[in-house]
Specification:
5-stranded antiparallel β-sheet, 52% helix
Length: 200
């Protein structure tokens, strides 16, 4: 079968229509690919934004928890009297009261100069320590344990006992000292804390 020029003329319109449809189809595919790319990009951007929001939310919750914990700690410190300037007069009165209550035969003590402690990375609070050397005359070992326990419980400071030495005392016959059987010498630290913005 041979195609004549008349046949070609008849086929021209369908061929042109087919070519036009092919071009349109190609344009549609190309356009849909562009839209798909845009949608993918928008989805990735939305996912990134969502992840950033979730991360920030987790960070805010962590910060809120830390603030709650720090607030609770500060309340505990305030209620125990540890916060603020050192209260040496209160400490000395409490030591004398404790000696009197436990009826200890003798007591001497000496506070050293207050110094600042290194806080590391914590800039929220400033810790200070006051060293103290304590000498006691005791009836028996339990007096020392009772004295230290009461001091740590009642002091308006965090009291740390670094060391204690016990030794028998030579017998004496003059007055109350005759009751003392043991001598104790302790090295202690009295810690106080205040907000860093009040640090001197």
């Amino acid at each position: 079968m041979k195609l004549t020029s008349r046949d070609l003329q008849k086929l021209g319109l369908p061929l042109f229509a087919a070519l036009a449809m092919t071009v349109v189809a190609g344009l549609l595919v190309w356009g849909s690919q562009i839209e798909a790319g845009k949608a993918e990009h928008e989805r990735n951007a939305a996912t990134t934004a969502k992840n950033q929001i979730e991360q920030r939310l987790r960070q805010v919750r962590t910060e809120e928890q830390e603030i709650r914990e720090r607030t609770q700690l500060l309340k505990q410190l305030q209620s125990s009297g540890i916060t603020g300037e050192e209260k040496r007069l209160d400490w000395m009165e409490m030591l004398r009261d404790t000696q009197r209550e436990l009826r200890l035969p003798g007591m001497n003590y000496e506070f050293g100069a207050q110094t600042s402690l290194d806080n590391g990375n914590d800039a929220t609070y400033a810790w200070f320590t006051s060293p103290m050397r304590l000498q006691l005359r005791l009836l028996h070992e339990e007096d020392l344990l009772n004295f230290l326990a009461r001091v740590q419980k009642n002091a308006k400071a965090l009291v740390i006992v670094r060391s204690c030495k016990l030794a028998p005392l030579p017998r004496q016959v003059d007055g109350r000292e005759a009751l003392a059987q043991l001598g104790a010498e302790c090295e202690m630290q009295w810690l106080t804390v205040r907000p860093a913005n009040q640090k001197k």
